[in-house]
Protein backbone atom coordinates (compact mmCIF):
# COMPACT_ATOMS: atom_id res chain seq x y z
CA UNK A 1 0.00 0.00 0.00
CA UNK A 2 1.26 3.45 -0.83
CA UNK A 3 1.20 6.17 1.76
CA UNK A 4 -1.50 8.77 1.22
CA UNK A 5 -0.18 12.32 0.92
CA UNK A 6 -2.38 13.27 3.85
CA UNK A 7 -1.52 10.45 6.25
CA UNK A 8 -1.12 12.04 9.65
CA UNK A 9 -2.25 15.49 8.57
CA UNK A 10 -4.48 17.06 11.24
CA UNK A 11 -4.41 20.77 10.49
CA UNK A 12 -4.93 22.59 7.19
CA UNK A 13 -3.43 26.09 7.05
CA UNK A 14 -4.86 28.27 4.29
CA UNK A 15 -3.30 31.22 2.62
CA UNK A 16 -6.07 33.78 2.15
CA UNK A 17 -5.29 36.52 -0.43
CA UNK A 18 -5.62 34.74 -3.78
CA UNK A 19 -6.15 31.25 -2.40
CA UNK A 20 -9.55 31.61 -0.74
CA UNK A 21 -10.39 35.14 -1.89
CA UNK A 22 -10.38 36.91 -5.25
CA UNK A 23 -8.42 40.05 -4.43
CA UNK A 24 -8.35 41.22 -8.06
CA UNK A 25 -12.13 41.53 -8.35
CA UNK A 26 -12.46 43.03 -4.86
CA UNK A 27 -9.65 45.55 -5.10
CA UNK A 28 -10.14 46.60 -8.72
CA UNK A 29 -13.83 47.12 -7.90
CA UNK A 30 -12.96 49.25 -4.88
CA UNK A 31 -10.47 51.29 -6.92
CA UNK A 32 -13.06 51.82 -9.66
CA UNK A 33 -15.61 53.04 -7.11
CA UNK A 34 -13.13 55.28 -5.29
CA UNK A 35 -11.01 56.75 -8.12
CA UNK A 36 -13.03 57.08 -11.34
CA UNK A 37 -11.36 57.40 -14.72
CA UNK A 38 -8.45 55.10 -14.01
CA UNK A 39 -7.37 51.65 -15.25
CA UNK A 40 -8.58 50.07 -12.00
CA UNK A 41 -7.28 46.61 -12.90
CA UNK A 42 -3.78 47.91 -13.63
CA UNK A 43 -3.86 49.91 -10.38
CA UNK A 44 -4.93 46.85 -8.35
CA UNK A 45 -2.21 44.68 -9.93
CA UNK A 46 0.47 47.26 -9.28
CA UNK A 47 -0.61 47.59 -5.65
CA UNK A 48 -0.53 43.83 -5.22
CA UNK A 49 2.94 43.60 -6.83
CA UNK A 50 4.29 45.85 -4.08
CA UNK A 51 2.94 43.57 -1.34
CA UNK A 52 5.62 40.88 -1.28
CA UNK A 53 8.58 43.27 -1.42
CA UNK A 54 7.47 45.47 1.49
CA UNK A 55 6.75 42.41 3.68
CA UNK A 56 10.19 41.11 2.82
CA UNK A 57 11.69 44.41 4.03
CA UNK A 58 10.06 43.79 7.42
CA UNK A 59 11.42 40.25 7.59
CA UNK A 60 14.92 41.35 6.52
CA UNK A 61 14.91 43.76 9.46
CA UNK A 62 15.17 46.81 7.20
CA UNK A 63 11.95 48.16 8.72
CA UNK A 64 10.42 47.24 12.07
CA UNK A 65 7.24 45.22 12.57
CA UNK A 66 4.18 47.02 11.22
CA UNK A 67 0.69 45.69 10.66
CA UNK A 68 -0.34 44.82 7.13
CA UNK A 69 -2.79 47.75 6.94
CA UNK A 70 0.04 50.20 7.60
CA UNK A 71 2.25 48.58 4.97
CA UNK A 72 -0.60 48.57 2.46
CA UNK A 73 -1.24 52.25 3.16
CA UNK A 74 2.38 53.00 2.30
CA UNK A 75 2.36 51.00 -0.92
CA UNK A 76 -1.03 52.45 -1.88
CA UNK A 77 0.43 55.94 -1.78
CA UNK A 78 3.38 54.82 -3.90
CA UNK A 79 1.01 53.41 -6.53
CA UNK A 80 -1.17 56.53 -6.42
CA UNK A 81 1.96 58.64 -7.08
CA UNK A 82 2.89 56.33 -9.95
CA UNK A 83 -0.58 56.75 -11.46
CA UNK A 84 -0.58 60.51 -10.81
CA UNK A 85 -3.54 60.31 -8.44
CA UNK A 86 -3.99 62.49 -5.32
CA UNK A 87 -5.67 60.33 -2.66
CA UNK A 88 -7.77 61.78 0.12
CA UNK A 89 -7.35 60.34 3.60
CA UNK A 90 -10.86 58.87 3.35
CA UNK A 91 -10.11 57.22 0.00
CA UNK A 92 -6.88 55.75 1.34
CA UNK A 93 -8.61 54.34 4.42
CA UNK A 94 -11.44 52.95 2.35
CA UNK A 95 -9.12 51.22 -0.13
CA UNK A 96 -6.95 49.68 2.59
CA UNK A 97 -10.12 48.45 4.34
CA UNK A 98 -11.33 46.94 1.06
CA UNK A 99 -8.93 44.02 1.61
CA UNK A 100 -11.23 42.96 4.45
CA UNK A 101 -14.22 42.41 2.20
CA UNK A 102 -12.73 40.97 -0.96
CA UNK A 103 -14.99 38.18 -2.18
CA UNK A 104 -14.28 34.51 -1.59
CA UNK A 105 -13.90 32.28 -4.63
CA UNK A 106 -17.25 30.48 -5.10
CA UNK A 107 -15.80 27.14 -3.93
CA UNK A 108 -14.05 28.56 -0.87
CA UNK A 109 -16.74 28.68 1.85
CA UNK A 110 -18.28 25.30 0.91
CA UNK A 111 -14.85 23.72 0.46
CA UNK A 112 -13.63 24.93 3.86
CA UNK A 113 -16.84 23.63 5.45
CA UNK A 114 -16.30 20.17 3.94
CA UNK A 115 -12.63 20.05 4.89
CA UNK A 116 -13.52 21.07 8.47
CA UNK A 117 -15.32 17.76 8.86
CA UNK A 118 -11.99 15.94 8.91
CA UNK A 119 -9.31 18.55 9.61
CA UNK A 120 -8.78 21.57 11.81
CA UNK A 121 -9.03 24.45 9.33
CA UNK A 122 -7.07 27.64 9.94
CA UNK A 123 -6.29 30.81 8.08
CA UNK A 124 -2.53 31.36 7.98
CA UNK A 125 -2.15 34.71 6.37
CA UNK A 126 -0.18 37.93 6.38
CA UNK A 127 -3.34 39.80 7.30
CA UNK A 128 -4.01 40.63 10.94
CA UNK A 129 -6.48 38.74 13.10
CA UNK A 130 -8.94 41.65 12.83
CA UNK A 131 -8.65 41.81 9.04
CA UNK A 132 -9.03 38.05 8.62
CA UNK A 133 -12.00 37.94 10.99
CA UNK A 134 -13.76 40.62 8.95
CA UNK A 135 -12.95 38.63 5.80
CA UNK A 136 -14.28 35.42 7.32
CA UNK A 137 -17.52 37.02 8.55
CA UNK A 138 -18.04 38.68 5.16
CA UNK A 139 -17.58 35.42 3.25
CA UNK A 140 -18.83 32.76 5.67
CA UNK A 141 -15.45 31.09 6.11
CA UNK A 142 -15.91 28.73 9.08
CA UNK A 143 -12.33 28.74 10.34
CA UNK A 144 -11.53 26.84 13.49
CA UNK A 145 -8.77 29.37 14.06
CA UNK A 146 -7.63 32.62 12.51
CA UNK A 147 -3.84 32.72 12.29
CA UNK A 148 -3.02 36.37 11.69
CA UNK A 149 0.51 37.66 11.27
CA UNK A 150 0.14 39.85 14.38
CA UNK A 151 0.06 36.71 16.54
CA UNK A 152 3.70 36.12 15.68
CA UNK A 153 4.93 39.54 14.61
CA UNK A 154 6.21 37.94 11.43
CA UNK A 155 5.20 37.61 7.82
CA UNK A 156 5.26 34.51 5.67
CA UNK A 157 7.50 33.04 4.42
CA UNK A 158 9.10 33.40 7.89
CA UNK A 159 9.50 30.19 9.84
CA UNK A 160 7.76 31.67 12.90
CA UNK A 161 4.39 31.70 11.15
CA UNK A 162 4.33 28.09 9.91
CA UNK A 163 5.96 26.58 12.96
CA UNK A 164 4.07 28.91 15.27
CA UNK A 165 0.79 27.51 14.03
CA UNK A 166 1.99 23.92 14.47
CA UNK A 167 3.11 24.75 18.01
CA UNK A 168 -0.26 26.33 18.89
CA UNK A 169 -1.97 23.14 17.77
CA UNK A 170 0.52 20.96 19.62
CA UNK A 171 1.43 19.02 16.47
CA UNK A 172 4.54 18.40 14.43
CA UNK A 173 5.04 20.50 11.29
CA UNK A 174 4.42 17.35 9.19
CA UNK A 175 0.92 17.18 10.66
CA UNK A 176 0.11 20.56 9.09
CA UNK A 177 -0.64 21.00 5.39
CA UNK A 178 -0.24 24.46 3.90
CA UNK A 179 -2.84 25.22 1.23
CA UNK A 180 -1.94 28.02 -1.18
CA UNK A 181 -1.92 29.18 -4.76
CA UNK A 182 1.59 30.61 -4.39
CA UNK A 183 4.47 28.21 -4.83
CA UNK A 184 6.81 30.38 -2.76
CA UNK A 185 4.53 30.03 0.24
CA UNK A 186 4.41 26.26 -0.23
CA UNK A 187 8.16 25.94 -0.79
CA UNK A 188 8.80 27.77 2.48
CA UNK A 189 6.23 25.66 4.32
CA UNK A 190 7.82 22.46 2.99
CA UNK A 191 11.29 23.65 3.98
CA UNK A 192 10.02 23.82 7.58
CA UNK A 193 8.52 20.35 7.43
CA UNK A 194 4.89 21.05 6.49
CA UNK A 195 2.96 19.21 3.77
CA UNK A 196 1.74 21.26 0.84
CA UNK A 197 -1.32 21.54 -1.37
CA UNK A 198 -1.33 23.81 -4.41
CA UNK A 199 -4.66 25.29 -5.48
CA UNK A 200 -5.04 26.58 -9.03
CA UNK A 201 -6.37 30.12 -9.24
CA UNK A 202 -5.85 31.00 -12.90
CA UNK A 203 -7.89 34.21 -12.54
CA UNK A 204 -5.98 35.48 -9.52
CA UNK A 205 -4.53 38.36 -11.54
CA UNK A 206 -7.80 39.11 -13.30
CA UNK A 207 -7.09 37.22 -16.49
CA UNK A 208 -3.49 38.39 -16.85
CA UNK A 209 -1.43 35.25 -17.21
CA UNK A 210 -0.17 33.74 -13.98
CA UNK A 211 3.15 31.92 -14.16
CA UNK A 212 2.74 30.37 -10.72
CA UNK A 213 1.14 27.06 -11.60
CA UNK A 214 2.46 24.70 -8.93
CA UNK A 215 5.49 22.44 -8.75
CA UNK A 216 5.66 18.66 -8.72
CA UNK A 217 7.05 18.84 -5.18
CA UNK A 218 3.63 19.51 -3.67
CA UNK A 219 1.83 16.64 -1.94
CA UNK A 220 -1.46 17.61 -3.56
CA UNK A 221 -2.46 19.68 -6.59
CA UNK A 222 -6.10 20.77 -6.64
CA UNK A 223 -8.19 22.76 -9.07
CA UNK A 224 -10.14 24.40 -6.23
CA UNK A 225 -11.13 23.75 -2.60
CA UNK A 226 -13.96 21.39 -3.47
CA UNK A 227 -11.51 19.33 -5.52
CA UNK A 228 -9.15 19.44 -2.54
CA UNK A 229 -11.98 18.15 -0.32
CA UNK A 230 -12.59 15.32 -2.83
CA UNK A 231 -8.91 14.40 -2.90
CA UNK A 232 -8.62 14.46 0.90
CA UNK A 233 -11.67 12.23 1.30
CA UNK A 234 -13.98 14.88 2.81
CA UNK B 1 -32.86 58.46 25.92
CA UNK B 2 -30.82 56.23 28.20
CA UNK B 3 -27.62 54.70 26.92
CA UNK B 4 -27.88 50.99 26.20
CA UNK B 5 -25.41 48.85 28.12
CA UNK B 6 -24.10 47.58 24.80
CA UNK B 7 -23.71 50.90 22.95
CA UNK B 8 -20.41 50.69 21.14
CA UNK B 9 -19.72 47.06 21.99
CA UNK B 10 -18.28 45.23 19.00
CA UNK B 11 -16.62 42.16 20.48
CA UNK B 12 -17.98 39.63 22.98
CA UNK B 13 -15.31 37.69 24.88
CA UNK B 14 -16.58 34.50 26.50
CA UNK B 15 -15.17 32.66 29.43
CA UNK B 16 -15.46 28.96 28.61
CA UNK B 17 -15.15 26.61 31.66
CA UNK B 18 -18.46 27.03 33.45
CA UNK B 19 -19.84 29.81 31.26
CA UNK B 20 -20.32 28.00 27.95
CA UNK B 21 -19.51 24.47 29.11
CA UNK B 22 -20.65 22.27 31.98
CA UNK B 23 -17.32 21.11 33.40
CA UNK B 24 -18.95 19.35 36.36
CA UNK B 25 -20.91 16.90 34.24
CA UNK B 26 -18.00 16.35 31.85
CA UNK B 27 -15.27 15.91 34.42
CA UNK B 28 -17.25 13.94 37.00
CA UNK B 29 -18.33 11.63 34.16
CA UNK B 30 -14.75 11.16 33.03
CA UNK B 31 -13.62 10.49 36.60
CA UNK B 32 -16.42 7.95 37.05
CA UNK B 33 -15.39 6.14 33.84
CA UNK B 34 -11.68 6.22 34.65
CA UNK B 35 -11.55 5.59 38.43
CA UNK B 36 -14.47 3.40 39.55
CA UNK B 37 -15.60 3.30 43.17
CA UNK B 38 -14.95 6.93 43.96
CA UNK B 39 -17.15 9.95 44.72
CA UNK B 40 -16.59 11.29 41.23
CA UNK B 41 -18.44 14.54 41.90
CA UNK B 42 -16.36 15.32 44.96
CA UNK B 43 -13.20 14.49 43.04
CA UNK B 44 -14.19 16.77 40.14
CA UNK B 45 -15.04 19.64 42.51
CA UNK B 46 -11.76 19.29 44.37
CA UNK B 47 -9.81 19.28 41.11
CA UNK B 48 -11.61 22.40 39.95
CA UNK B 49 -11.00 24.16 43.29
CA UNK B 50 -7.27 23.81 42.69
CA UNK B 51 -7.50 25.50 39.28
CA UNK B 52 -7.61 29.16 40.33
CA UNK B 53 -4.80 28.92 42.88
CA UNK B 54 -2.26 27.26 40.57
CA UNK B 55 -2.97 29.77 37.79
CA UNK B 56 -2.48 32.55 40.33
CA UNK B 57 0.93 31.09 41.18
CA UNK B 58 1.92 31.47 37.53
CA UNK B 59 0.72 35.08 37.41
CA UNK B 60 2.48 35.93 40.69
CA UNK B 61 5.72 34.74 39.14
CA UNK B 62 6.15 31.95 41.68
CA UNK B 63 6.22 29.42 38.83
CA UNK B 64 7.05 30.12 35.19
CA UNK B 65 4.60 29.99 32.30
CA UNK B 66 3.18 26.54 31.74
CA UNK B 67 0.27 25.43 29.59
CA UNK B 68 -3.03 24.69 31.29
CA UNK B 69 -2.76 20.95 30.56
CA UNK B 70 0.52 20.79 32.49
CA UNK B 71 -0.94 22.67 35.45
CA UNK B 72 -4.04 20.47 35.43
CA UNK B 73 -1.83 17.39 35.39
CA UNK B 74 -0.08 18.64 38.52
CA UNK B 75 -3.30 19.42 40.40
CA UNK B 76 -4.85 16.13 39.26
CA UNK B 77 -2.05 14.22 40.96
CA UNK B 78 -2.52 16.28 44.13
CA UNK B 79 -6.23 15.41 44.18
CA UNK B 80 -5.52 11.74 43.46
CA UNK B 81 -3.14 11.70 46.43
CA UNK B 82 -5.79 13.35 48.59
CA UNK B 83 -8.33 10.68 47.56
CA UNK B 84 -5.79 7.89 47.97
CA UNK B 85 -5.89 6.94 44.29
CA UNK B 86 -2.90 5.72 42.26
CA UNK B 87 -3.27 7.10 38.74
CA UNK B 88 -1.75 5.45 35.70
CA UNK B 89 -0.14 7.65 33.08
CA UNK B 90 -2.94 6.75 30.67
CA UNK B 91 -5.63 7.67 33.21
CA UNK B 92 -3.94 10.98 33.93
CA UNK B 93 -3.65 11.86 30.24
CA UNK B 94 -7.23 10.85 29.61
CA UNK B 95 -8.60 12.93 32.49
CA UNK B 96 -6.61 16.01 31.52
CA UNK B 97 -7.82 15.63 27.93
CA UNK B 98 -11.40 15.34 29.18
CA UNK B 99 -11.46 19.14 29.63
CA UNK B 100 -11.43 19.35 25.82
CA UNK B 101 -14.73 17.55 25.40
CA UNK B 102 -16.80 18.76 28.32
CA UNK B 103 -20.35 19.39 27.10
CA UNK B 104 -21.68 22.82 26.24
CA UNK B 105 -24.70 24.06 28.16
CA UNK B 106 -27.73 23.47 25.91
CA UNK B 107 -28.15 27.20 25.20
CA UNK B 108 -24.46 27.81 24.43
CA UNK B 109 -24.04 26.85 20.76
CA UNK B 110 -27.36 28.40 19.65
CA UNK B 111 -26.76 31.48 21.81
CA UNK B 112 -23.28 32.05 20.38
CA UNK B 113 -24.65 31.64 16.86
CA UNK B 114 -27.31 34.31 17.46
CA UNK B 115 -24.86 36.70 19.10
CA UNK B 116 -22.46 36.27 16.17
CA UNK B 117 -25.02 37.93 13.93
CA UNK B 118 -24.31 41.27 15.60
CA UNK B 119 -20.99 40.90 17.43
CA UNK B 120 -17.59 39.36 16.90
CA UNK B 121 -17.68 36.35 19.24
CA UNK B 122 -14.45 35.09 20.82
CA UNK B 123 -13.45 32.59 23.43
CA UNK B 124 -11.24 34.27 26.05
CA UNK B 125 -10.18 31.45 28.28
CA UNK B 126 -7.34 30.05 30.31
CA UNK B 127 -7.32 27.00 28.04
CA UNK B 128 -4.86 26.83 25.17
CA UNK B 129 -5.83 27.43 21.55
CA UNK B 130 -5.62 23.67 20.87
CA UNK B 131 -7.81 22.81 23.86
CA UNK B 132 -10.40 25.46 23.01
CA UNK B 133 -10.47 24.43 19.36
CA UNK B 134 -11.18 20.83 20.35
CA UNK B 135 -13.92 22.09 22.70
CA UNK B 136 -15.45 24.24 19.97
CA UNK B 137 -15.42 21.45 17.37
CA UNK B 138 -16.93 19.03 19.90
CA UNK B 139 -19.76 21.40 20.80
CA UNK B 140 -20.36 23.36 17.61
CA UNK B 141 -19.27 26.71 19.05
CA UNK B 142 -18.95 29.00 16.02
CA UNK B 143 -16.29 31.34 17.41
CA UNK B 144 -14.93 34.04 15.17
CA UNK B 145 -11.71 33.75 17.14
CA UNK B 146 -10.26 31.46 19.78
CA UNK B 147 -8.39 33.48 22.40
CA UNK B 148 -6.28 30.92 24.23
CA UNK B 149 -4.00 31.82 27.12
CA UNK B 150 -0.97 30.62 25.14
CA UNK B 151 -1.40 33.57 22.77
CA UNK B 152 -0.39 35.89 25.58
CA UNK B 153 1.49 33.63 27.97
CA UNK B 154 -0.81 34.88 30.72
CA UNK B 155 -3.83 33.68 32.62
CA UNK B 156 -6.94 35.63 33.51
CA UNK B 157 -7.40 37.77 35.49
CA UNK B 158 -4.14 39.22 34.07
CA UNK B 159 -4.52 42.46 32.14
CA UNK B 160 -2.62 41.04 29.15
CA UNK B 161 -5.47 38.68 28.26
CA UNK B 162 -8.34 41.20 28.26
CA UNK B 163 -6.38 44.05 26.73
CA UNK B 164 -4.56 41.68 24.39
CA UNK B 165 -7.85 40.64 22.84
CA UNK B 166 -8.98 44.26 22.44
CA UNK B 167 -5.66 45.09 20.77
CA UNK B 168 -5.94 42.15 18.36
CA UNK B 169 -9.36 43.43 17.30
CA UNK B 170 -8.10 47.00 17.02
CA UNK B 171 -10.76 48.27 19.43
CA UNK B 172 -10.81 50.04 22.78
CA UNK B 173 -11.38 47.91 25.89
CA UNK B 174 -14.84 49.55 26.28
CA UNK B 175 -15.80 48.05 22.90
CA UNK B 176 -15.31 44.55 24.33
CA UNK B 177 -17.82 42.90 26.65
CA UNK B 178 -16.60 40.03 28.84
CA UNK B 179 -19.23 37.31 29.30
CA UNK B 180 -18.72 35.03 32.31
CA UNK B 181 -20.34 33.28 35.20
CA UNK B 182 -17.48 34.23 37.51
CA UNK B 183 -17.65 37.65 39.10
CA UNK B 184 -13.89 37.77 39.63
CA UNK B 185 -13.32 37.46 35.89
CA UNK B 186 -15.82 40.26 35.26
CA UNK B 187 -14.43 42.49 38.00
CA UNK B 188 -10.97 42.19 36.47
CA UNK B 189 -12.31 42.85 32.97
CA UNK B 190 -14.15 45.95 34.20
CA UNK B 191 -11.05 47.21 35.98
CA UNK B 192 -9.29 47.23 32.59
CA UNK B 193 -12.15 49.08 30.90
CA UNK B 194 -14.22 46.24 29.41
CA UNK B 195 -18.01 45.95 29.72
CA UNK B 196 -19.36 42.93 31.57
CA UNK B 197 -22.20 40.45 31.29
CA UNK B 198 -22.87 37.92 34.04
CA UNK B 199 -24.43 34.60 33.03
CA UNK B 200 -26.18 32.52 35.68
CA UNK B 201 -24.98 28.93 35.83
CA UNK B 202 -26.57 27.65 39.04
CA UNK B 203 -25.57 24.06 38.25
CA UNK B 204 -21.91 24.87 37.58
CA UNK B 205 -20.84 22.94 40.69
CA UNK B 206 -23.23 20.05 40.04
CA UNK B 207 -25.98 21.20 42.37
CA UNK B 208 -23.70 22.23 45.21
CA UNK B 209 -24.66 25.79 46.01
CA UNK B 210 -22.80 28.47 44.11
CA UNK B 211 -22.23 31.73 45.93
CA UNK B 212 -21.09 33.54 42.79
CA UNK B 213 -24.37 35.04 41.63
CA UNK B 214 -23.30 38.29 39.98
CA UNK B 215 -22.91 41.84 41.26
CA UNK B 216 -24.96 44.91 40.41
CA UNK B 217 -21.86 46.41 38.78
CA UNK B 218 -22.26 44.32 35.66
CA UNK B 219 -23.71 45.95 32.55
CA UNK B 220 -25.90 42.94 31.84
CA UNK B 221 -27.18 40.00 33.91
CA UNK B 222 -28.47 37.07 31.87
CA UNK B 223 -29.98 33.72 32.77
CA UNK B 224 -28.24 32.03 29.84
CA UNK B 225 -26.79 32.83 26.42
CA UNK B 226 -30.15 32.88 24.66
CA UNK B 227 -31.38 35.41 27.24
CA UNK B 228 -28.18 37.37 26.60
CA UNK B 229 -28.94 37.31 22.86
CA UNK B 230 -32.47 38.58 23.61
CA UNK B 231 -31.14 41.37 25.81
CA UNK B 232 -28.52 42.41 23.25
CA UNK B 233 -31.10 42.52 20.48
CA UNK B 234 -29.81 39.54 18.51
Chain pair with largest interface: A-B, 17 and 17 residues
- As for the number of domains of chain A, it is 2
Tell me what the CATH architecture of the largest domain in chain A is.
3-Layer(aba) Sandwich
Average pLDDT reading of chain A: 96
CATH topology name of the largest domain in chain A, in short, is Rossmann fold
Topology:
2 copies of one chain form a homodimer.
Chain A: E1 11-14, H1 23-34, H2 40-49, H3 51-59, H4 68-82, H5 89-97, H6 108-116, E2 120-124, H7 129-139, E3 145-147, H8 159-168, E4 176-180, H9 183-191, E5 195-199, E6 220-222, H10 225-231
Parallel strand pairs in A: 1-2, 1-4, 2-3, 4-5, 5-6
Helix pairs in contact in A: 1-2, 4-5, 6-10
In short:
Chain A is α/β, with parallel strands linked by helices. Chain A has helices at residues 23-34, 40-49, 51-59, 68-82, 89-97, 108-116, 129-139, 159-168, 183-191, 225-231, and strands at 11-14, 120-124, 145-147, 176-180, 195-199, 220-222. Helix content of chain A is 43%, strand content 11%.
Amino acid sequence: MTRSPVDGVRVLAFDTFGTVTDWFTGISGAVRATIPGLDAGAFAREWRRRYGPILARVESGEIGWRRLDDLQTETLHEVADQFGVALTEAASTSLVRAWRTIPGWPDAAPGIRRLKGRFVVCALSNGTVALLTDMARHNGFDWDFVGGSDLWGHYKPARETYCGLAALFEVEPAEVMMVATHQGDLDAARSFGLRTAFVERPLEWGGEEKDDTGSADNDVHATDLCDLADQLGC
